[in-house]
């Protein structure tokens, strides 16, 4: 089928975006191009690692199929409401409809100032671009709903942060860039017809089966809530910490978005946080489910005028719905965690709880503790726990629970659930340092190759499985803005 660029979101209202051209750069060069994703989107061949594509994905040319625009949104940032945020360094180029009739946004990130830049330069250093490329593609390979990385381009210019750093631009693909913060922005405009139009658009784009529901806007709340509960449960099962779960970083599609200060936990500790700006641990690992509920409550508030004519009745309807979030989340969480030890939920729950307690007490790597359960023998697992008496008791109880199941088949299945490779903080930082200081992408390409098949253990990537040594540890992450 032919390439099908469209601009449906911009047809809703010109209040929801600001037309804006990308700022050209001096000397663009390719860093990476995701050919597999380009094929899925059926993008024209002349965009693939070509000079033409380079000029477009660097912002130096605006093709006739693009209508670049910065999207408007609001958001609660660390609990404080900001009525206007918007894309301060990103531009939506177009939407495309793939061969499966699925619609995706294509967006430049780091392409220069917009009307929402609030004094910023609209640019990105190479570090955050590489981080988002690596982690978003790793999350996709891990089976986590996520935005994707289509391209990364070096700008040939320096970006000033604490020091001058090489600049870069990411091309991001998303089911949409509509956020809880977008709905908050629309509500703040106090235009009922526009709010209804926006909600109808979200329904039609992401939840078409709910359009004909007797209460479509309640169905919308239910669907968004379900997707967020499912997403956060998946994060928790792989030790992912988003780091900045503001309402403007929570998509209505249920995809993970914005990989600024994100990180993967190594030694298991529910209080783990990495984000430098998260001083009080609001977005620590253990708090992510509660923040998901808090964000859903904010989304429910935007739908109140659509849930009932009577405000008190609308609040009652919305409250009753979001009170179910915890149960939905728990169901997804235990499905994920029980699969990680290969047992039914009711059998797995006490064993998982005990296992996590052991991990925390002994400072054991979260990823390896589950991955090594799938080994043919238990040498690596024994060594990980220093063959402690507590571990031996737990392991014996786990084997008893497995009972007469085919242990070989079960362990093979575990290795399709528990990854060997995750984008560990020190590995990502090593990639960034090599690119920034030496101009080398060798480590970037190697890490991406390993992460593209995270469940397939390969001897040539053995070093990429291991947690950071003490001198390698990266304990803080940054947004890059």
Span between termini: 39 Å
Return the structural class.
alpha+beta
Low-pLDDT stretches: none
Q: Biggest sheet: strands, sense, closure?
A: 6 strands, antiparallel
- Biggest sheet strand order reads 1-7-8-10-9-3
CA gyration radius, whole angstroms: 23 Å
Count of alpha and pi helical runs:
16
Gross geometry: globular
Mean pLDDT: 95
The amount of beta strand, in percent, is 5-15%
Written overview of the protein:
The chain contains 16 helices and 12 strands. It is an alpha+beta fold. Among the domains are: 5-174, no CATH class; 343-414, no CATH class. The longest helix has 23 residues, at 216-238. The radius of gyration is 23 Å and the shape is globular. The two termini are 39 Å apart. The mean pLDDT is 95.
Quick recap of the structure?
The chain is built from 16 helices and twelve strands. The protein is of the alpha+beta class. Among the domains are: 170 residues, no CATH class; 72 residues, no CATH class.
Task: Tag the structure with descriptive keywords.
manganese, single chain, two-stranded antiparallel ribbon, globular, 16 helices, magnesium, alpha+beta
């Amino acid at each position: 089928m032919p390439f099908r660029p469209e601009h449906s979101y911009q047809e809703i209202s010109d209040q929801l975006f600001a037309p804006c051209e990308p700022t050209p750069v001096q000397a663009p060069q390719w860093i990476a191009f995701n050919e597999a994703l380009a094929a899925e989107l059926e993008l024209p061949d002349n965009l693939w690692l070509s000079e033409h594509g380079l000029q477009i994905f660097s912002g130096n040319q605006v093709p006739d199929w693009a209508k670049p625009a910065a999207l408007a949104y609001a958001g609660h940032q660390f609990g404080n409401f900001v009525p206007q945020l918007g894309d301060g360094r990103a531009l939506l180029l177009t939407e495309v409809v793939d061969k499966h009739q699925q619609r995706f946004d294509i967006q430049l990130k780091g392409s220069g100032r917009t009307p929402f830049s609030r004094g910023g330069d609209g640019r990105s250093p190479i570090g955050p671009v590489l981080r988002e490329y690596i982690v978003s593609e790793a999350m996709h390979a891990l089976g986590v709903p996520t935005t994707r990385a289509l391209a990364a381009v070096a700008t040939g210019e320096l970006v000033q942060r604490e020091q001058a750093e090489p600049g870069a631009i990411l091309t991001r693909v998303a089911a949409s860039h509509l956020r809880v913060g977008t709905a908050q922005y629309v509500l703040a405009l106090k235009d009922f017809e526009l709010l209804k139009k926006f909600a109808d658009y979200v329904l039609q784009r992401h939840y078409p089966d709910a359009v004909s529901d007797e209460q479509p806007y309640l169905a919308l709340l239910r669907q968004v809530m379900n997707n967020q509960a499912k997403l956060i449960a998946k994060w928790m099962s792989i030790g992912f910490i988003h780091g900045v779960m503001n309402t403007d970083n929570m998509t209505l599609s249920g995809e993970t978005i914005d990989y600024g200060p994100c990180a993967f936990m190594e030694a298991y500790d529910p209080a783990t946080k990495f984000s430098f700006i998260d001083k009080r641990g609001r977005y620590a690992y253990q708090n992510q489910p509660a923040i998901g509920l808090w964000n859903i409550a904010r989304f429910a508030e935007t739908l109140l005028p659509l849930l009932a004519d009577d405000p008190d009745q609308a609040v009652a309807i919305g409250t009753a719905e979001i009170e179910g979030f915890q149960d939905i989340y728990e169901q997804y969480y235990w499905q994920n965690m029980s699969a990680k030890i290969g047992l039914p939920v009711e059998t797995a729950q006490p064993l998982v709880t005990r296992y996590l307690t052991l991990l925390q007490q002994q400072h054991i790597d979260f990823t390896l503790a589950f991955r090594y359960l799938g080994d043919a023998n238990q040498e690596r697992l024994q060594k990980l726990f220093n063959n402690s008496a507590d571990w031996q008791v737990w392991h014996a109880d786990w084997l008893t629970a497995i009972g007469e199941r085919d242990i070989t088949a079960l362990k093979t299945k575990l290795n399709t659930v528990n990854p060997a490779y995750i984008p560990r903080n020190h590995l990502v930082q090593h990639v960034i340092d090599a690119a920034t200081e030496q101009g080398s992408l060798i480590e970037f390409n190697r890490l991406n190759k390993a992460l593209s098949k995270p469940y397939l253990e390969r001897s040539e990537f053995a070093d990429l499985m291991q947690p950071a040594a003490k001198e390698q540890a990266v304990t803080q992450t940054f947004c890059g803005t």
